[in-house]
Amino acid sequence: MKGKRTDLQTDACAIARSLDVIGDWWSLLIVRDAFRERRRFGEFQKSLGLAKNILTTRLRKLVAVGIMGMVPASDGSAYSEYVLTEKGESLYLVIVALWQWGETYAFAPGELNTALVAGEKRKRLAPLELRTRDGRIVGPRDFMWINKLRTQ
Questions:
Q1: Is residue 150 assigned to a domain?
Q2: How far apart are CA 44 and CA 46, in angstroms?
Q3: Are 80 and 40 within one domain?
Q4: Residue ranges making up the domain that contains 82
Q5: Which residues pair with 68 in a beta bridge?
Q6: Three-state secondary structure of the chain
Q7: Residue 148 domain-assigned?
Q8: How many Å apart are CA 74 and CA 129, to the nearest integer?
Q9: Which of 7, 33, 62, 114 is deepest in the core (most CB within 10 A)?
Q10: Do both 7 and 65 map to the same domain?
Q11: Neighbour count for residue 47 (Cβ, 10 Å)
Q12: Is the residue at 134 inside a domain?
């Protein structure tokens, strides 16, 4: 028996709260498609092969939490289009990080026939790196979670 999804919007962890907003794969794939210039419901549905009711639910949530907005259609028709907001566009690092991880670990050599490139010159992206504010590279064992100290 499937239970109701746990609500994480009041969790003390930033990862948990983020996953509460964008944690299902359909939402991230919709955001990915929005970065690929898809704007209309039908474009998302065709790309994702997603049932209309599920797509409707995910798009409504992405709009409700401010990741996407609705604007009049760019061609002047009566339709509306979905666009990433500033909040949504800031997910580009998440999308690139997932892409680079998948490129490395989810495909056999030579299997992936798509590349993620930057700009008009179409140069491949360097692997993302996490750095301290003073520029030092941070590895997977070099960071930790601490409780912020409260000042009186």
A1: no
A2: 6
A3: yes
A4: 1-90
A5: 84
A6: CCCCCCCCCCCCCHHHHHHHHHCCHHHHHHHHHHHCCCCCHHHHHHHHCCCHHHHHHHHHHHHHCCCEEEEECCCCCCCEEEEECHHHHCCHHHHHHHHHHHHHHCCCCCCCCCCCEECCCCEECCCCCEECCCCCEECCCCCCCCCCCCCC
A7: no
A8: 37
A9: 62
A10: yes
A11: 14
A12: yes
Q: What is the pLDDT of residues 50-106, one digit of tens each?
A: 999 999 999 999 999 999 999 998 888 888 999 999 999 999 999 999 999 999 999
pTM of the model as a whole: 0.85
Q: What is the largest CA-CA distance in the chain?
A: 58
CA nearest neighbour of 24 among 62, 68, 80: 62
User: Residue 109: is its pLDDT beyond 70?
Assistant: yes
Report the residue count for the chain.
Answer: 152
Based on its alpha-carbon atoms, the radius of gyration of the chain, rounded to whole angstroms, reads 19
In whole angstroms, what is the distance from residue 118 CA to residue 120 CA? 7
| 80-84 and 117-118 beta bridge pairing | unpaired
pLDDT, tens digit, 9 for 90 and up, residues 119-129: 889 999 999 99
List Cα–Cα distances, 145 to 15, 26, 71, 135, 142, in angstroms. Answer: 11, 29, 40, 19, 11
Total count of domains within the chain: 2
Domain match, 86 and 97 both:
no
Kindly report, residue by residue over 12-23, the tens digit of the pLDDT.
Answer: 788 888 888 887
